[in-house]
Design a protein that fits this description.
The chain is mostly beta strands. Helix content is 6%, strand content 53%. It has two domains: 122 residues, Carboxypeptidase-like, regulatory domain (Immunoglobulin-like); 578 residues, Maltoporin, Chain A (Beta Barrel). The strands form nine sheets. The protein has a 24-stranded antiparallel beta sheet that branches. It has a five-stranded mixed beta sheet with strand order 8-15-16-11-12. A four-stranded antiparallel beta sheet has the order 3-2-5-6.
Amino acid sequence: MNKLKIVFISVVIIISCNKIFSQNITQTIKGQVIEKQTLAPLPGATVILLETDPVVGTITDINGYFTLENVPVGRVSLQVRFIGYHTATLNNLNLISAKELIVNIEMEEKVLKMDEIVVSATRKGETMNKMSTISTRTFSIEESQRFAGAMNDVSRMAANYAGVCTSNDALNDIVIRGNSPSGLLWQLDGVDIPNPNHFGQLGATGGPVSMLNNNVLSNSDFMTGAFPAEYGNALSGVFDLRMRNGNYDKHEFLGQVGFNGFELGAEGPIFKNNNSSYLINYRYSTMGVMQAIGIDFGTGTALPNYQDLTFKFNFLTKKIGKISIFGLGGISDINFLYSERDTTKDDENFYAYDNRDILSKSKMGVIGVSHTLIINSTTYSKLIVGASVMFNENVVDSVSTVTNIPRPYYHSNFIDSRIFGNFYINKKINSQNNFRIGVDVKRIGMNLTDSVYDASKDRFVTMVDNNDFTYLYETYIQWQYKLSDKLIFNPGIHYQQLALNNSNSLEPRFGIKWHLSNTQSLGFAYGLHSISQPLTVYFKQVELPDLNFFLPNKNLDFTKSNHFVLGYDIYFNKNLRFKTEVYYQDIFHALVEQKESAYSSLNNNSFTRFSPDSLQNTGTGYNYGLELTFERFLDKGLYYLFTGSLYESKYRGSDGVLRNTAFNGNYVFNALAGKEFELSSRKQNAKHKKFITIDAKITYAGGLRYTPVDVEESMKNHQTELDETRPFSEQFDPYFRADIRIGFRLDGKKVSQEMAIDIRNVTNHKNPYMMMFNNTTGEEEMINQLGIFPIAQYRIVF
């Protein structure tokens, strides 16, 4: 009887679809419906456009594809139904006039039969990765475009979520639950990638400008702890990013100019009638223009130069499955020339130091080929092979305070080149049991050289000099067991080994989700996680009296942590949600000095270049906290998001003293809200549709921790010297920042244009950044973070 009802509804909506709206400004929605665990297409699924009268929809073809034509532009919602599967709902998708909307919908089979349970739709806020039980946020790329102050950057967008904050305004480093930003793992289409930021450093995870282009990304997952077994070599969190495929029917083009650069993009079919596609996007720096009109972006008189390219080619075959070729690459350089400074101006500079000329270059590239094969109705496999490279060159000259003449002080040239291959096979036994087994192998090649001038020896001393390679092996197994649709278990094990010194780690992972009702759920997750040390640490050299060298750090182990999370989720209605999580993270095997000191690798951040030369894995630390999220998902043009985090982050160095970490801000609160208005005439023959958006954000957080300046030593050495006996013992005043964004979109029949102004720190609040020694005054001086920072953007799609 139920099947007859669905067939009847399907016939009605197909007929209705042909009589859909008669307005002129319309567009097409299309995509594919597949089974989540097996990736098999679901033919005959019913796809309905919600909030339409009469009912509008269609059914999927034999390959799971569907098309809805002549849909009025604006916000649209889709609902997909298939017998024996949970209803999937996609809410408030943004349909613009010049670009077809392509959606890929994954449906999950019910444990019980339809007649035995109430049909319930997929809720907003649910994760893409169903193996992730807790501490995961699935975000749409539109959020990185919509949130005030995000600047089209997924890292800056993620800083609005509970448990996350930025290290400072000038960089997009993110601190997750008190952890160092270096503990974050970046993945793109299933492979680990190097630091995806311009001016990023080897071993770091952030930078001033992101290479990741949100115009080519799809919905992705962001994890803040106790993540599933498939993720390894990370301590704090995971960005699991997915690139979208290009349009497989129609050529489309994009032009954009904004903070991230001048941008051109294109996509479309490669071959007709087989759903193959290409997607290419290129960007070039706009910083020169911004500097010319007087915008201060924190580099003083130095001009950042950068460009990047992103691409993906997707091929579907009948016999050997799906093949994708994807890549991301960028180059950047900047010169901070203190010797050529304008002494009449007081330009704030967050990346350089007094009495130093710094020349910095960086390059990053990754390319991969993936092959997805559906073996049978319950099994599929995925193989990815590729390569990545990251290059950093930094030259530092010391500038005389008397003659203003630069003298060589430091030089480094770091190259990290990797060849990788990973493979996994996914097997769905039945509606209750799903297994995934995978292996990942990386050949890590390195060419690392750096040296620093030692005044006591009146010569350069080599700190790192290595040209070698090693391997990192990872393997895992995951099992999802559904006792019922209400109770789900996700156990797994991850193992990794570094061939350099045969250090290894066997890591159990476990998660459980219990749906108390249709609106409430409890979740718990535990994970043992580990991360290898930066390559430059392993190969740090110590010079012996006979001028030979030895490597005291080569046999260092992974830094590890036990992470426990408990969470509660409640939906007051389909658009209103409250979530809270408590966590405890016990960190061990952190790097500390062999002699007694306060140093710990848990305080390292993106621009930490020098570290002690003789380290051991005896350091410890812990993080614990409470996180709150209250949000209204976008509906009828309105959304809001309130997040709060209370936390402690402590560590012990080799001296055994318990101290605050550099990232122990203690609290952070965010409030975001936005409204979208349609200004267009509702006449059927209107030539344009107009939309305006207003978004705002307020952040209030504990001030940065800092180490006091040792004024006496600074005066002796004519540079900033810190009192290392009191690390992070002081804290700046609380951080406050308000951002606002106003956008306008004009949809014509074939062209869509968007204009926006995003103003960060609209109140021009002075937030402290660091303490430095001023050679001119002979006193310590506070450096503030960025003041008001306006960013304009224009985008055209055709």
